[in-house]
Amino acid sequence: MAKSKVKFICQSCGYESAKWMGKCPGCGEWNTMTEEVLKQATPRRAVFAHSTQTVQKPSPITKIETTQEPRIYTNMKEFNRVLGSGIVKGSLVLIGGDPGIGKSTLLLQVSSQLADNHHDVLYISGEESVKQTKLRADRLGVKSDKLLVLSETDLSFISKAIEETQPSFVVVDSIQTVFHSEISSAPGSVSQVRESTAELMRIAKTKGIAVFIVGHVTKEGSIAGPRLLEHMVDTVLYFEGERHHTYRILRAVKNRFGSTNEMGIFEMKEVGLEEVQNPSEIFLEERSKGASGSTVVASMEGTRPVLVEIQALISPTSFGNPRRMATGIDHNRVPLLMAVLEKRVGLLLQNQDAYLKVAGGVKLDEPAIDLAVAVSIASSFKDAPPKPTDVIIGEVGLTGEVRRVSRIEQRVTEAAKLGFKRAIIPEANIGGWNAPKDIEIVGVKNVAEALYKTLGG
Ligand code: TYD
Ligand code: MG
């Protein structure tokens, strides 16, 4: 009898070790190493590898023929765009997100639309019974016979069902519930998740089926168990949003068939998710115009500009070290920009607490928001509100200079479309593009000049 091999695997990063350890040397987490019995490399896989792959010779890159990957389009523009215009056949896509955020709802809606467009769809739920799925489907108004549902967790039955029904689109909700009967560790453990994903990958690639898998997210925010799952799949999407808000953001963090940083915005309604066509409007909806500390920036999210409000609250520190807190922007930028304001503009900020927030629960991580953050901080500190019709764009360097940003035309055009009257932009970005007529363009060289122009002397 083949001896089964026991290993200790970190459930958070996938680090393997022959003996148990309290702290994982891979990621430094405590108590994440668990014992798992590994499957012996089965001959089936070895045969599989050799039978389908004839020995390949290296060939010149110019001689390789390319074809456009065939894509399936859904009726949801936002969803198509995040995937890089449509679902690629034979791709494996992982969707992660907090429990209850709407992953099952999104995928059931997508499944239903594809079925309406005459694609065969198989929706496999390991978490809900077919009755529960049906209840949700009734709420969403699903009515195509082409959508098949199955409640199953055993991978061999799942493969068999795919084999028999020959769908063009498969959903596996969720990968943590699926188990491979040859592996003795519990469903959701690293080796189970890894083997199941590898098997689904083989199915997707050999049959040209688009497979979507749902993955749960851990407390720390990575897809549960293994970050290695992210390496195995073609595309990783995150579905995020605050549970108390109805807006949901679908974001690509890895995409072998398109650009990352694309985002799609949805709103959770009584009858499922609805696309939000103009995100800038919703992000600015609740803005209190003319408040000090509030500015608007045009930030690029993938290929699309969105206008978002940046809020700052600066107040004297009551005791101890001043606090610097930021939500939605990189918290290291805040002390940096405050230091620039202190040293280059002469604002005395060292004994002030600073709280920064991007309204609407969006995360911004591009440097083009620096200037808006700096103006917000100064505005709150001086209690001088900027004009509510100003949009502020620019990167700030350590000498206080305002540096040029990419895609200025798109940013300013979006601002003009939403009725902004003046764009404060880097001097270096002036010229060479078509500025919209109904917005005044003001170039600034440094932070001091930007403050003078927005907040006055
Ligand atoms: P769900 O898709 O089950 O989340 P996940 O699969 O990510 O765990 O979403 C569940 C939430 O969505 C639940 O709180 C109810 C809400 N919801 C609506 O508001 N409208 C709807 O039409 C549906 C189906 C769900
Ligand atoms: Mg679910």
UniProtKB/TrEMBL annotation:
**Where is coiled-coil annotated?**
none
Tell me the domain of life.
Bacteria
List the InterPro entries hit by this protein, alphabetically: AAA+_ATPase, DNA_repair_RadA, P-loop_NTPase, RecA_ATP-bd, Ribosomal_Su5_D2-typ_SF, Ribsml_uS5_D2-typ_fold_subgr, Rubredoxin_2
Provide this UniProt record's keywords sorted from A to Z. Answer: ATP-binding, DNA damage, DNA repair, DNA-binding, Hydrolase, Metal-binding, Nucleotide-binding, Stress response, Zinc, Zinc-finger
Q: Where is this motif: RadA KNRFG motif?
A: 254-258
Residues where ATP binds: 97-104
Gene Ontology molecular function terms on file: ATP binding; ATP-dependent DNA damage sensor activity; damaged DNA binding; hydrolase activity; zinc ion binding
Q: Which Pfam families match?
A: AAA_25 (PF13481), ChlI (PF13541), Zn_ribbon_LapB (PF18073)
| GO CC annotations, alphabetized | cytosol
PANTHER family per UniProt: DNA REPAIR PROTEIN RADA, DNA REPAIR PROTEIN RADA-LIKE PROTEIN
- Record family assignment: Belongs to the RecA family. RadA subfamily.
According to UniProt, the name of this protein is DNA repair protein RadA
Organism per entry: Bacillus weihaiensis
